[in-house]
Design a protein that fits this description.
This protein has about 375 residues and is of the alpha+beta class. It has 6 helices and 12 strands. Bound molecules: calcium ion (2 copies).
Length: about 375
């Protein structure tokens, strides 16, 4: 598992912060691991524009595959109630409509708040100079030649002025990308949009159920082959990551939503294009806890656990992105999961929304 890409990582490269151990959290939430009442999975009569009805049911979450990452294991049987889900990732055009209606300014467009950032670094870490605490985000910056894949700073750069309006930084814009997924989304950016739209972010369980499209126990969302009959079914990375982005699937960056075939639930780009934020805190032992192989979290415990980043305040992202490659992360699978710092966006993270009538969060375990 690679080190999560985040604002504090980008700044840490600059201020040479060494990450050590910490467990404080400003919020304690474990909604995804709470048992909840399964509501009706019957499709409501009233349709939701731009959304597909996900009928709910039993499924196998996670995997027992030997070469999968530990946080994806083991496979567990779960039930999910029905819900509506956006058929595609939220686009730049949709996010533009939201900001025009509300005046909302995203996290990457704001000056970083040291009072929040210092909670994610060892106590006593000196405050960086004000000249470094300026608005920006992490941008994929491929090296010109092949490099070892053990250090993400070789291809992720902290770019001042990068945000959803300027995905590669100042000088880049959204022209011709209106129908591409919005990127550089921090959790607050996605959640605020969802609330404005009368929707919410999916739980990880809901997201994985929807991505599998009713196909249980398969490595990929569509079966066991990455390219059945030579077809590309998702926007991922072909070639040697990170320097050789061949774009054999037609795209070296994001693609317009709905370019690739939908899954059996009618959902596009659940795999690839951009990673998608969920409402859940990242817990590397979540699947093990659900299977009874690790102690359950209680209300007094830190809801976020990432052994690679003990300072983590991360939400789960799912589905992989246009940067997922066979020689590196192989995260274009429904069980793949990563933690994503709550206050950070990157040039390959977006989201989509869900909606339920009645009670919220309908995952059972
Ligand atoms: Ca691609
Ligand atoms: Ca996606």
């Amino acid at each position: 598992m690679d080190f999560p890409v985040s604002k504090i990582f980008g700044l840490a490269v600059i201020i040479s912060v060494t990450l050590a151990c910490n467990s404080n959290k400003s919020e304690n939430q474990a909604s995804d691991s709470e048992a909840m009442t399964l509501s009706s999975s019957k499709e409501p009569r009233e349709k939701e524009p731009g959304m597909a009805w996900i009928p709910g049911g039993e499924f196998i979450m996670g995997t027992n595959e030997e070469d999968a990452y530990d946080p994806e294991k083991p496979a567990v049987d779960l039930k999910v109630a029905g819900f509506w889900m956006d058929t595609h990732e939220v686009t730049n055009a949709e996010y533009t409509a939201f900001t025009e209606a509300t005046g909302y300014v995203t996290v990457a467009e704001r000056k970083p708040d040291w009072e929040e950032l210092k909670l994610q670094v060892p106590p006593g870490t000196p405050k960086p100079h004000d000249s470094l605490l300026v608005a920006g985000s992490m941008v994929f910056t491929p090296p010109p030649v092949a490099v070892p894949t053990d250090d993400i700073s070789r291809w992720w750069s902290w770019v001042i002025g990068a945000n959803w309006r300027h995905p590669e930084g100042p000088g880049s814009d959204l022209k011709g990308r209106e129908n591409h997924p919005v990127v550089h989304m921090a959790f607050e950016d996605a959640k605020t949009y969802a609330e404005w739209a009368g929707k919410r972010l999916p739980s990880e369980i809901e997201w994985e159920f929807a991505a599998r499209g009713g196909i249980n126990g398969k490595r990929f969302a569509w079966g066991d082959e990455l390219h059945p009959n030579g077809q590309f079914l998702a926007n991922t990375f072909q070639g040697n990551f990170p320097n050789e982005n061949l774009g054999t699937d037609g795209f070296v960056g994001t693609s317009p939503v709905k370019t690739f075939a939908p899954n059996t639930f009618g959902l596009y780009d659940m795999i690839g294009n951009v990673w998608e934020l969920t409402d859940d805190w990242y817990d590397a032992l979540k699947y093990a806890r659900l299977a009874g192989q690790a102690p359950k979290l209680d209300a007094t415990m830190n809801p976020c656990y990432n052994p690679n980043n003990p300072f983590a305040q991360e939400r789960v992202i799912k589905g992989g992105s246009y940067l997922c490659a066979a020689n590196y992360c192989v995260n274009y699978r429904p069980s793949a999961r990563q933690g994503h710092s709550f206050d950070s966006g990157t040039s390959n993270v977006g989201f989509r929304c869900v909606k339920t009538t009645g009670t919220k969060s309908l995952s059972l375990n």
